[in-house]
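Possible race condition, two jobs.
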Amino acid sequence: MNWGKVAAVALLGSTVAAGAGMWYAQEYLYYDPIDPNGPGAAIALATEGGARDLPLTGFEGIDADSSPLRWRACATVDQAALDGLMAGALPFDGATPLNAPRWFACFDAARIGGDLESGAARAVLSVSDIRPDVDRVLAVYPDGRVYGWHQYNDKTPERGVMD
């Protein structure tokens, strides 16, 4: 047997193992589901009169300690409650939904982004500076569907993205 072939196979095998490990870490390792009955399942809506909690049903959410941007949520709000709450909601300009792991099927960033651009959904602020330089943003549909994510804000551009 040729030692060059052994080295090539070892190098190829370690590359495949590292790639599989990176994929697993990005898709599964750091994400934890949010308990629908726990404190992490409450979503507020920023309004001109202050923050108001949304009465949610069907909540699904994920989060991770590894990044302030990994929070995602999907839920539904009762139509009657939504109409009253949206009147004073603060709009969020430049909303850009971030991709979620493929296994979190309720959150489709491309569809949500397209709906925000077309006007089928409205982007509103949920919580300003939920973490330093990060806002919680919601995409709200007229039928009561609500999708949320965290997004960097540019309120303090002189500081840069990270401290």
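Job #2 (started ~2 s after job #1):
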Amino acid sequence: MNTAKRMSRWKKILIWISVVVVVLAAGVYVYVASATYSPSAQAEAAMQSDSKVSVTEVKQGYRFEPQGVEAVEPNIIFYPGGLVDPASYSPLARAMAEQGHRVYIAKMPLNLAIFGKNKADTFIAEHPDEAFVIGGHSLGGAFASRYAAEHPDKLEGIFYLAAYADDGGSLAAATGLSALQITGTDDGVLNWEEWEKTQTNLPVDTTFVSIDGGNHGQFGSYGMQKGDHTPEITGDEQLQSVVQALDDWLDVLNK
């Protein structure tokens, strides 16, 4: 086979490989888009700025800030759960902004925090001289923990919503960090065995809060999640419990 024919053959092979890669990538994108949980009408409404809270889309996510007053430290960074649209956490972000905090919700590639562990860097760079805490829901909490394990000097604390610190995000040696771990008693998605086993990965200064009747999906606002249990309380009631737990934890953190 002469050189020209060999080149032609390899060109055809490369074209076919390119076509297959594009088709597979498109298929993955379509699947992820169809599997992603969308924000509820309440969450969509909470994304709108008003006289109390300014909502801005920034490079790596969304920023919620109290209107007309100086933000209260620490600022809050939030990592969404896996395959959940970040806007689904806007009711929580808005509630904490109404309490005076600047809140960032990260947008993750393919809505999976595994591909965006370091998103917090961008938010911290906006106010490098201010205090920050980080947290997340489910998969987002696990990768928030991994970020905190690698950058404990940039943070004051971490909070977990139906999430835990796996071995890659162990904070057992991070003596300067405070942690808050919140769960719901009707959570049918959280791996409770892993949650129990990984308690040793948490800082000594960890507060545990259990919400009676709360489930997994109501830590956000996107409806029922596959495999979850029917909650015994409303989404608003669970949100209020989360906000209260965060407020109490942050108050202690600031003393």
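Confidence is low (pLDDT under 50) at residues 21-32.
Logs attached separately.
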